[in-house]
Backbone:
């Protein structure tokens, strides 16, 4: 269960399509409700992940012929009173589902109290388990994989409706759309798709109808589904997880941690460089430059980092600037933290008395020399503690880059916890990784502080 | 003549009466002089004008042949050039010394010669060591300012200024930050520096210190009211106004000088 490697029937479908089109499929991980944004932005060419055939989707993307149809299924705890087994009985009930899904629309029309989850399907069923919601309405494959694996749940196909999945493409990709349709048709006609669905245990009457086949029962055992059931069905004891499961996951966490570290170090380097210039501009620059620096600091300090990241990643392509995910993450974090750093350095600069500047001036030192040899070293000592603080905060804020398809430490945790239903144990593990990342820097900072403050220690004479 | 100050007029913003109203005096090369005056007499302003830390409107200051004109007589760029050139001939010992706290005594003295005059570190270090030794700090070469006593700090500040080999060295209230018992020591230091043929100007309100110098200019209300040898100016002032001033001052001070 490597969060960097996707599995599932649609991943296999992608590989098959790639073979048909004579291309190598390279799967990219994106948050489900952001898939169409990522597609139009150009992060990938095809979105194959339960994209529902619906009018409002056709307005932004082109959709292939449907490759799968399934029913919406309601899941609730076996001990729930007044079980909502049909659409009418959902009225007024608290029901969870995925945002901007067909199921959400069905629930809203039925007058249910809808709760949507951006994190993933696992969390919806976890909330059902602990009783924060009464029921879940989702597509049957999701219900099978995340709901039916729990013994205390039961699921019902009712009159909730059905949903067809199609592959989404950019609207101008007409040639690729044609190729995809041809490939899908051939995979459907030669029985490849049916075999695939049966293997994953998602073959159903609705898809049989779509393919014009009479037989709704599977002919082969759902091997992959059984594997999944075994893997997540029952949470092993903590000791067992600690001795067998967690060690096997260390590789994934290390990989995520390295990405977190890389993003954070690059972003901090950028924040420091930009921050120094902002602070100097604000303190020593001509008036217009001072205003620019102040405006920058206020804007970037006063707006949420998440919004800045979304604007940079999804907004800038509108102006023709399409940044790679890593770069976008680093730039967003760097720009944001530069504002904080600038204020740190300003505090440092202002802590140096005016007389020090006059003394340098009188000795004939240039402004640059004064900053480098007189003001800088004194200001740095003041700025190091808040800088350390900021770096550790940045290390944690770097988890936001998961929304731009980067599988860093938090995303690794989210994916693993979601697929193993183990939020607590893995939560401890990811906490240890964050601490391991942050502590060396805190130590380094203490050393640096001591170094720059050595003149303050009186000799024992 | 190493320092000629001629008709300096300086207004402070928001104050209709000028702080300096045509201040003039001339000092011979190598002399040890004092600008003596009460708080508000204009002596600190005069010192800051000489150092280029404050502008003045009219008049001129000539330091060892380099002239700095008032803001009304030349443009900003010319003035910046003049001040830069004059500063190469000037040194200043601040009232609070303003030593660089993160540098040792040696580093304080060697920084500017290396960075400004482009001297090699070896040459600068040698001079710094020689100067600090001459001022009796041979055992404190690698101490940080925080580790020095007030008098030691002052001598490092003097060495730092002398390291730039100025023609004129100014002191801003050298006794005010020190214990009264140190006054004699300050005078000794001034005499020791005097041997190096540098013109020294002590800005002070300390009559005791002024008695030890060679030449005194008494300032009041932005002008020089009397000049001469200290024994003459302080003990037997010729001008009525000087006499009145000294009298009032002596009785008001009664030992402890007013805060600058």
Residues:
């Amino acid at each position: 269960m490597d969060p960097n490697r996707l599995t599932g029937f649609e991943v296999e479908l992608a590989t098959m399509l790639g073979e048909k089109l004579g291309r190598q499929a390279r799967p990219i991980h994106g948050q489900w409700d952001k898939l169409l944004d990522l597609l139009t932005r150009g992060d990938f060419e095809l979105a194959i992940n339960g994209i529902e055939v619906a009018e409002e989707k056709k307005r932004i993307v082109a959709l292939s012929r449907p490759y799968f149809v399934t029913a919406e299924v309601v899941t609730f705890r076996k001990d729930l009173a007044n079980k909502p087994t049909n659409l009418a009985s959902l009225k007024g009930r608290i029901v969870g589902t995925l945002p901007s899904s067909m199921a959400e629309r069905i629930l809203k029309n039925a007058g249910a109290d809808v709760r949507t989850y951006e994190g993933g399907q696992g969390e919806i069923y976890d909330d059902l388990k602990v009783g924060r919601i009464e029921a879940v309405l989702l597509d049957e494959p999701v219900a099978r994989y995340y709901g039916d694996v729990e013994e205390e749940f039961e699921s019902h196909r009712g009159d909730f409706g059905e949903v067809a999945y199609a592959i989404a493409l950019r609207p101008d990709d007409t040639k690729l759309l044609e190729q995809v349709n041809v490939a899908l048709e051939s995979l459907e006609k030669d029985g490849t798709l049916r075999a695939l669905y049966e293997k994953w245990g998602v073959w159903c009457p609705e898809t049989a109808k779509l393919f014009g086949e009479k037989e709704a029962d599977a002919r082969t055992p759902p091997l992959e589904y059984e594997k999944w059931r075994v893997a997540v069905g029952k949470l092993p004891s903590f000791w067992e997880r600690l001795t067998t499961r967690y060690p096997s996951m260390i590789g994934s966490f290390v990989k995520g941690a390295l990405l977190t570290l890389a993003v954070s170090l690059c972003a901090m380097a950028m924040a420091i460089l930009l921050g120094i210039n902002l602070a100097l501009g604000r303190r020593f620059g001509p008036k217009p430059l001072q205003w620019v620096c102040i405006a920058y600091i206020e804007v970037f300090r006063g707006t949420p980092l998440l919004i800045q990241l979304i604007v940079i990643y999804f907004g800038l392509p509108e102006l023709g600037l399409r940044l790679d995910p890593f770069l976008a993450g680093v730039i967003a974090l760097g720009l944001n933290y530069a504002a904080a750093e600038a204020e740190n350095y300003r505090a440092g600069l202002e802590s140096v008395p005016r007389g020090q500047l006059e003394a340098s001036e009188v000795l004939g030192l240039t402004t640059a020399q004064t900053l480098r040899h007189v003001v800088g070293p004194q200001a740095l000592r003041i700025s190091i503690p808040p800088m350390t603080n900021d770096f550790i905060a940045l290390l944690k804020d770097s988890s936001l880059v998961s929304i731009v398809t980067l599988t860093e430490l938090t995303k690794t945790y989210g994916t693993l916890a979601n697929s193993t239903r183990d939020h607590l144990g893995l939560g401890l593990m990811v906490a240890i990784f964050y601490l391991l990342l942050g502590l060396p820097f805190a130590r380094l900072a203490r050393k640096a502080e001591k170094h720059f403050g050595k003149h303050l220690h009186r000799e024992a004479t | 003549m190493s320092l000629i100050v001629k008709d300096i007029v300086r207004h402070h913003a928001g104050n209709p009466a000028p702080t300096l109203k045509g201040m003039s005096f001339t000092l011979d090369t190598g002399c040890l002089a004092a600008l003596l005056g009460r708080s508000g007499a204009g002596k600190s302003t005069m010192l800051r004008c000489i150092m280029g830390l404050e502008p003045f409107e009219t008049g001129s200051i000539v330091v060892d042949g380099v002239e700095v004109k008032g803001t009304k007589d030349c443009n900003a760029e010319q003035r910046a050039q003049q001040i830069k050139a004059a500063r190469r001939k000037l040194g200043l010992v601040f009232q609070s010394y303003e030593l660089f706290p993160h540098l040792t005594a040696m580093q304080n003295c060697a920084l500017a010669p290396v960075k400004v005059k482009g001297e090699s570190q070896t040459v600068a270090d040698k001079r710094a060591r020689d100067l600090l030794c001459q001022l009796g700090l041979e055992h404190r070469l690698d101490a940080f300012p925080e580790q020095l006593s007030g008098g030691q700090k002052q001598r490092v500040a003097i060495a730092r200024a002398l390291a730039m080999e100025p023609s004129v060295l100014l002191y801003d209230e050298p006794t005010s930050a020190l214990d009264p018992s140190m006054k004699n020591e300050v005078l000794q230091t001034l005499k020791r520096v005097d041997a190096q043929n540098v013109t020294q100007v002590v800005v002070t309100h300390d009559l005791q210190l002024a008695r030890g110098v060679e030449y005194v200019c008494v300032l009041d209300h932005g002008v020089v009211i009397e000049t001469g040898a200290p024994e003459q100016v302080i003990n037997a002032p010729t001008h009525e106004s000087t006499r009145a001033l000294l009298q009032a001052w002596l009785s008001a001070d009664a030992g402890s000088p007013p805060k600058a």
User: Anything to note?
Assistant: The interface with chain A takes residues 51-53, 84, 87-88, 90-92, 94, 96, 98-103, 111-112, 115-116, 143-147, 160-161, 164 of chain B (CB under 8 Å).
